[in-house]
Design brief:
The chain is of the alpha/beta class. It contains 10 helices and 10 strands. α1 packs across α7. The longest helix is centred in the middle third of the chain and has 15 residues. The model has no long low-confidence stretch (mean pLDDT 84).
Length: 278
């Protein structure tokens, strides 16, 4: 799986659920460069049933070269935004680098892809092999995200899945977590896990450290304030998701502490300014 946002969270949730019933190998932490991928592959043994790889791209050839070794059966391509844009000549180069996980798919492999990214590729005249089964996720896609519902204990997302209304559930979470859950469900459904079983398994899910971590400070029922740590990493699209999740929270006062987003290239100033304007 690759993209500009959600890779680590999706890998974490998917690996956790698959590990409940099988031996799973996955990339550790944020080690998603070629060395981390190869180290994960070296851990495969006779008991291994699934291999879950988070793959990053931080320059030309950093993803397209190692992914040829993997030859995945399922590729997940998320939204592509301005993360690491500073290391590519153009945004188109970044998109094609990420899309290398499509060409690396095995014969009759499956591609789970953001509908926005699919349209980007179409506009760039990228042709997906005819043997690949494509499942798009987003507004008007094969799996449409209809509504997010954030709760204090459980959060849910309503999706249209093959014409059926399905409600997916995860503990707490924010908007980004709910979108990530849809991608995880799309992968797990290929292994025979329906939404009822997904909801049962996802109840044990815990987000990555420093990814919308909530610490409540107060005494008993008298809550003084709530600290939300979302500093795992940062990109324009992830910060936008954070702002949307905070906006709907009903509290008297909200204070944001934001650091710089790195590797955004020539558009860095404009992108930082757009966050302030939002």
């Amino acid at each position: 799986m690759t993209g500009s946002v959600g890779k680590s969270s999706i890998k974490n949730m998917l690996s956790m659920i698959l590990s409940m019933n099988a031996h799973v190998i996955y990339t550790v932490g944020n080690e998603n460069a070629w060395l981390g991928i190869y180290c994960a592959l070296c851990n495969i043994n006779q008991k291994t049933k699934y291999v879950v790889l988070e793959t990053g791209a931080s320059g030309l050839g950093t993803l397209s070269t190692p992914i040829k070794v993997v030859s995945p059966t399922i590729s997940v391509l998320l939204d592509i935004n301005f993360s690491h844009q500073g290391k590519y000549p153009t945004i188109e180069d970044l998109i094609f680098e990420k899309a290398s996980i499509i060409g690396a798919l095995r014969l009759k492999g499956k591609l789970i892809i953001s509908y926005n990214t699919l349209n980007m590729l179409r506009n760039l005249k990228y042709v997906i092999r005819e043997d690949i089964h494509v499942i798009s996720i987003g507004d008007g896609a094969d799996i449409s995200i209809l509504r997010n519902n954030l709760g204090k204990r459980n959060s849910t997302v309503d999706v249209s899945f093959h014409g059926e209304l399905v409600k997916l559930k995860i503990p707490q979470g924010n908007i980004a977590d709910l979108i990530n859950a849809v991608y995880v469900f799309a992968v797990l459904n290929n292994f025979g896990i329906n939404f009822i079983k997904f909801n049962a398994l996802s109840s044990f899910y815990r987000p990555l450290p420093r990814r919308f971590d909530r610490s409540r400070i107060g005494y008993k029922e008298n809550l003084t304030f709530e600290l939300i740590d979302d500093a795992y990493n940062s990109s324009p699209i992830s910060i936008q998701s954070l702002l949307e999740s905070i906006e709907i929270r009903e509290v008297q006062e909200k204070i944001l502490i934001l650091g710089d987003m790195l590797e955004l290239g020539m558009d860095s100033v404009k992108l930082h300014q757009s966050i302030l304007e939002n």
